[in-house]
UniProtKB/TrEMBL annotation:
Domain of life, source organism: Bacteria
Gene3D superfamilies: alpha/beta hydrolase
Gene source species: Nitrospira defluvii
InterPro entries in the cross-refs: AB_hydrolase_fold (IPR029058), DUF900_hydrolase (IPR010297)
Classification of source organism: Bacteria, Pseudomonadati, Nitrospirota, Nitrospiria, Nitrospirales
Name of the protein this chain belongs to: Alpha/beta hydrolase
Length: 304
């Protein structure tokens, strides 16, 4: 397995955003690599590093399990990329009250997402070679971490840093117009500079239909949040934006008959007795083909 784990967590559940600790990922355990950071930098030289980020309401073990198994799915598709699973504290003790009550803690989690993005970019600048290309694959609120980190990558021209490659956003818990909106809290610069952005969405996503709408409505009243929309990118697809931005984005909507829900893009957790080697949405097939630059990448969930 050609994969590493970067943990920005200090606790199994909740906790603060940290500067990051690196591990080498193995199928069932991880090896401490934080004392070999120069070796990691050399590994990335001239290579593409694909970062994968889980979403909201994932503890450390759940996030790690989903991402490492998703990496395994990508490798079965044929991926040879160097991959980095990023674990960040996107879970709140409020979630103990239930998934819908936990949605009301979304404003606090969005701040953790932004802090995670800032710390992630700092880590990438320090430990990824400037000749490397960085691709991002995010799920749910992890897409906010992805897009903020990517936005800062292209905006900050004073620091040498890796090159922004492709971005894939799955069930993205960010505003549907945020890729093209001209505001400080939007991601328009990253959308323009990325090689290409893919959006996988489903109108059958009940979490984004209810929880995101409730949480984003609360956040719109949160001081300095910059939130304006209650339409999630991962349910409605990209909306608005100039032709220059739209040309960089390809949107894929799941066939309603497939019933693709919010958790279907990553492997099931906890895994069943006989773990599947694919996700319910078959998102790993699309991600592999998209990152491999195959023309017209196929997402089986989109087909009739």
């Amino acid at each position: 397995m050609n994969a590493f784990i970067l943990s920005l967590r200090d606790q199994k559940f909740g906790g603060a955003v940290t500067s990051g600790v690196l591990y080498k990922a193995l199928p069932y355990w991880d090896v401490w690599w934080n004392d070999r950071l120069p070796d990691f930098t050399l590994l990335t030289r001239g290579q593409r590093l694909t970062l994968l980020l889980h979403g909201y309401n994932n503890g450390l073990e759940e996030g790690r399990d989903k991402l490492v198994r998703f990496i395994g799915c990508l490798e079965q598709q044929g991926s040879t990329d160097l991959m980095l699973a990023v674990l960040w504290p996107g879970d709140s003790w409020a979630n103990a009250l239930g998934s819908w009550a936990g949605a009301l803690s979304y404003p606090a989690e969005s701040r953790d997402a932004d802090d995670s993005a800032d710390n992630l970019l700092t880590w990438l600048v320090l430990h990824v070679h400037e000749s490397a290309r960085v691709a991002f694959v995010g799920h749910s609120l992890g897409c906010r971490v992805v897009m903020r980190a990517a936005q800062r990558m292209v905006r900050d021209v004073t620091v040498k840093k890796p090159i922004l490659d492709r971005i894939c956003l799955m069930a993205a818990a960010i505003d549907s117009d945020s890729l093209g909106r001209v505001e400080p809290t939007s991601y328009r610069d990253a959308a323009k500079q990325a090689d290409r952005i893919a959006v996988l969405a489903s109108q059958e996503d009940r979490v984004l239909q209810v929880a995101y709408r409730a949480g984003d409505s609360v956040q719109s009243w949160w001081p300095f949040s910059g939130e304006r929309s209650v339409r999630a990118l991962g349910r409605y697809g990209p909306e608005g934006g100039s032709p220059e931005v739209s040309a960089k984005i390809e949107s894929h909507m799941a066939n309603p008959d497939r019933g693709i829900g919010h958790s279907d893009y990553l492997p099931q957790y906890p895994p069943p007795a006989a773990p599947l080697h694919h996700t319910r949405a078959k998102s790993e097939q699309f991600v592999f083909e998209f990152l491999s630059r195959r023309p017209n990448p196929d997402w089986p969930a989109e087909r009739p």
